[in-house]
Amino acid sequence: MFGLKRWRWLVLLAMLAPLNGAGAQSPSTHRLSIDDLIDIKHPSSPVWSPDGRRVAFLWDRADIVNLYVANSDGQGQPLALTAYPDGKVGDVFWSHDGGTVYFSRNGDLWQIGISGGEPRAVWATPSPEVEISPSPDGDRVAFVRAASAGEAQHGGDLIVRSLRDGSESKIAHDDESIYSPVWSPDGRQIAYIGGSKFIRHDESPSYSGEKLIFAVSEYVSGQLYVVSSLGGKATAIDTPGEYNGLAWVDAAHVTYDRQSNHYKTRTIYVAPANGGAPQAIHDDKEEKFWSLPDWEAEAKPKPSPNGKWIAFLTDLDGWDHLYVVAPTGGQAIQITKGKFEAWRPTWSHDGTRIAFDANDPDHPGDRRIGIANIGNDPVHATVIYITAGKGTNVKPRWSPDDKRLVYQHTDTRNSADLYVSEANSGTKPVRLSNSMSPTIDHSAFVEPELVHYPGPDGQPVPAWLFVPRNLDRSKKNPAIIWVHGDGINQNYDGWHVQRNYAVYYSFHQYLLQQGYVVLAPDYRGSIGYGRDWRNGVYMDVGGNDAKDAWMGANYLKSLSYVDSERIGIWGLSYGGFFTLIAMTDQPSLFRAGIDVAGVVDYVMYYNDPYHGDWTESRIGTPEENPKVYANASPISHIDRLARPLLVLHGTSDVNVPFLESVWLMDEALKKHKGDLVTFMMYPGEFHYFSREHVLGDAWRRVDKFFAAHLQAGDYESRSH
Asked: pTM for the whole thing?
């Protein structure tokens, strides 16, 4: 639901107009099917070869992740280097000569030549190896070897292994865990986090029964250490806590950030690797709470390769912008300015330029790639943009010679794909991948329109309106409100940039074919619109933000071609929470609703140790603000439910625990609402539906549910 900075080890885990649809083959026109949606792939983790001639990347089709390599000039089709039926490929990096690509799979390191063939194991051991990190010179790797198979985080050893001769040495051990090994620039030291742990608390509430055990894991922060890559005694750095954005400034210093003062202060530190006292070099102080989404915007400190500057994002002027500060501290220098948000900064290898992506003041759903020329004087930095027009361009990565950038592009006709552009303006980007089946008709997709409507306090709520092609506007048509999750996320002018939400955008294109008008609001709390809109949820979670969402129905009713009696609402996670609020607070406003893994009560959510900090930063504790928490508890009003509700949830959801939906069903039955609620659980599925059989079943259920309750016909006769 929210940022998962602590979960990555648990899971183990626009554009120039002619570019729209570029590279797609001529399709045989047919209606978009659910199978077509599932077949759309999502690229990620592009890595340049040392000579810049190729880009290796991961391609995900319904949670089956395999490794591909593409020519960086766009010639030819990407070559599949692996074709594992279950995927599970990660940790991609190149050999120093560019002839081999390494990757991790099932706890071992593998390798394959760039021309393909059979992958070979670099090693295969009974114990899993995770957190694989190559040395700066590419000759060695650091990794964590677990104490035993299946117990990867119950103690482990930090190992350094030579890729030349296979020799290895244990350089550190921790009885609890080791995470995030990071090499120093000279390869002589490794920083890592040891001792963090998860204390499991089993629960079996009366409404689920004693045979069902639900695990609630309490997180305990670890300690930062630095150790020689040859072994020896590890040095503790700072006090135990969070080390967000851990990185080396130079061969003798590390940097990271922490939050304090009830999540109102974010501090960037630089600490000597020899264990000396850390120095606070920059503070961000917020009136409400620090809300800049690091997992999306990459706001963490990023040192330049030459060690002269630390780049970071902050919203000091009300908008997320790029700043730099010297590692010794002093006045931070603002690089980008204006009523837009700059995210995902990345340094060129020579440390003189920073690439980033940013939206425009009047185009919150488009993003373009910018380059800030820092040189030796950030005060006089200049900024250029190398992409233009509609589309969402994100996550730039420099080529080894700093002359090109690879990045991800989406737009209204294309889901996420990789492109390469020269690092100067005015050049035409080159497309590397085509993630959609050639049978899909790109021209049939419906483009969204950015609209606004008044929220509960009169503030204009931005939203994206989709109207089906060839809709008969002389008739009243059904409509659906889609509420995005994460709290701090947003919709885009086209396909979503994240795979987890791109699948929903795809499905809405399918629903548009069925004749539904779709509205996707960016309620207060959403990103892309500045700090004030994003922080508008402070002490009001489930209040005006939820009203922003469901009041979209009032806007839809104002459209002459929408049937006010046939409006549905649905959402994932935070959007599922809003759906439950809408269906209970406004029981006759919506004809039907679908809750996908939504929070049912924020006291319950706060008491799950992983989510207490997210909740407390926004609405304090239940003891401090009982009325706010009571307002954020749609389960308390489930007796008001008057229209059909479909609930979908995965049993392996650690973000919004599956237990929440179990409790929801129990309360619905107790309040005699069982005839209105349909519940489908997905065994083994995580928060974001990803596997083919789950996506197929979920989309077909949603399709049938909305068809039964929103399509023309007598609703009362169908529901009784």
From this structure: 0.93
Q: Determine the 3-state secondary structure of 84 from DSSP.
A: coil
Averaged pLDDT of the chain: 92
The token duo for 229 is 């890559």
Q: What are phi and psi of 609, to 5 degrees?
A: -55, -30
The β-bridge relationship of strands 253-260 and 244-250 is antiparallel
The arithmetic mean of pLDDT across residues 202-230, rounded, is 92
Distance, in Å, from the CA atom of 330 to the CA atom of 190, rounded to the nearest integer, reads 28
The bridge status of strand 382-385 relative to strand 430-431 is unpaired
What structural domains does the chain harbor? 125-241 (2.120.10.60), 449-713 (3.40.50.1820)
Q: In what order do the strands lie in the sheet with 189-194?
A: 178-183, 189-194, 222-228, 235-241
Element holding 659 (H helix, E strand): helix 659-670
User: Which tokens hold the place of 340?
Assistant: 């837009």
Q: Are 526 and 488 in contact (CB under 8 A)?
A: yes
How many other C-beta atoms are found inside a 10 Å radius of the C-beta of residue 279?
15
Give CA 527 to chain center in angstroms: 13
Distance (Å, whole) CA 542 – CA 602: 9
* 8 A C-beta contact, residue 446 and residue 468: yes
Crossing angle of the two packed helices 692-710 and 499-513, in degrees rounded to 10: 40
CB atoms within 10 A of CB 504: 25
CB 665 within 8 A of CB 679: yes
Beta-strand relationship, 310-314 and 321-325: antiparallel
477-483 and 460-466 as β-strands: parallel, antiparallel, unpaired?
unpaired
**Pairing of β 42-48 and β 178-183:** unpaired
Contact 104, 89 (CB under 8 A): yes
| Dist CA 328 CA 310 (whole Å) | 10
What's the CA gap between 463 and 453, in Å, rounded? 8
- Determine the Cα angle at 361 with ends 444 and 334, to 5°: 130
Alpha-carbon span 71 to 433, nearest angstrom: 10
Q: Residue 612: is its pLDDT beyond 90?
A: no
At residue 17, the pLDDT reads 33
List Cα–Cα distances, 29 to 438, 459, 494, in angstroms: 10, 42, 20
Residue 535: pLDDT over 90: yes
What secondary structure, in 3-state letters, does 455-491 show?
CCCCCEEEEEEECCCCCCCCCCEEEEEEECCCCCCCC
176 contacts 195 by C-beta, under 8 angstroms: yes
CB atoms < 10 A from the CB of 288, how many? 17
- DSSP for residue 284: E
